[in-house]
Amino acid sequence: MLRTSSVRILSERDREAVCAILDTDPVGNVFVASRLMSTGIGTRFHGAELWGHVEQGRLTALCYSGANLVPVNAGPAAIRGFADHARRQVRRCSSIVGPVTAVDDFWNQVSAEWGPARAIRDSQPVLEIDGPPAVPTDPLVRRVRPSEINTLLPACVAMFTEEVGVPPDSGDGGALYRARIEELVRTGRAFARIEDGRVVFKAEIGAVSRHACQIQGVWVDPDLRGQGFSAPGMAAVVSYALAEIAPRVTLYVNDFNTPARATYQKVGFRQVGEVMSVLF
Q1: 167-199 residue pLDDT tens
Q2: How far is the C-alpha of 54 from the C-alpha of 60, rounded, in Å?
Q3: Those residues with Cβ within 8 angstroms of residue 142's Cβ, 6 or more apart along the chain or in another chain
């Protein structure tokens, strides 16, 4: 007898159960929570779906499937179900990101169909801060104004290319990436120190939920690195975030990025988890 699939596509009627799962780890699940707050569940915003794993009639795990594929609260049985569901589709995501064990298990099951990966980041510490930064803030770091998007955008492209290994403006000429940066500026979630039309330091708050927000895109002009801009800049962004956006601030960083990890520790971040990323 054929077994009924344990995975189904979720919709708004599943919101209460979805939120209950996301709330079990507000920091680790901030990205998925943020996406669902802004787009709803089941709206297929930019082609994204939310998959649910059901055991004995109860929703136990989630998998956000969009530009990023992110398993949530997924043990071995859920990962098997999500991987089976994924293998029936053409890969659309540009990365798989999530808890190390879950992502490693998922990737092992889909790599034959979805591979090869361009890069695998198998250890990315998740950091959190929920109180005042431990270093003084840079008073020149502020919200980026809409009139400064053309100044900010090249720094964002440089950061993305350096971090991910490919430019974000390939394929569609950068239209989607520019739209995302414009959205962050418009919503007051892009911060920078700009001097004479030059971005010295910048960072964005890429995800916001009821419980936490996630910093991304941290960057210092390469010619100015090592001159003390990063820690005060991060402290400024953290102070803005805690005062106006969310009670907990998080980010994740590559384990091999020693200077960045030292900066975050200096500011007062502490490690609360670890994720893995598979990049295509």
Answers
A1: 987 767 789 999 999 999 999 999 999 999 999
A2: 6
A3: 191, 192, 193
Burial (CB count within 10 angstroms: exposed 0-12, middle 13-18, buried 19+), residue 139: exposed
Answer yes or no: pTM beyond 0.90.
yes
- Report residue 129: phi and psi, to 5°: -140, 135
Q: Are strands 58-65 and 68-72 parallel, antiparallel or unpaired?
A: antiparallel
CA–CA gap between residue 145 and residue 217 (Å, rounded): 17
Q: How far apart are CA 115 and CA 91, in angstroms?
A: 9
Rounded CA gap, 243 and 129, in Å? 13
Distance of CA 242 to CAs 133, 211, 250, Å? 10, 11, 11
Give which of 144, 138, 137 is closest to 197, Cα–Cα.
Answer: 144
Residue 100's contacts (CB-CB under 8 Å, 6 or more residues apart) are 122, 123, 274, 275, 276
CA dihedral 243, 244, 250, 256 (to 10 degrees): -80
Please tell me whether residue 201 adopts helix, strand or coil conformation: strand
Q: Are the CB atoms for 177 and 157 separated by under 8 Å?
A: yes
* Closest to 73 in 3D by CA, of 62, 57, 64: 62
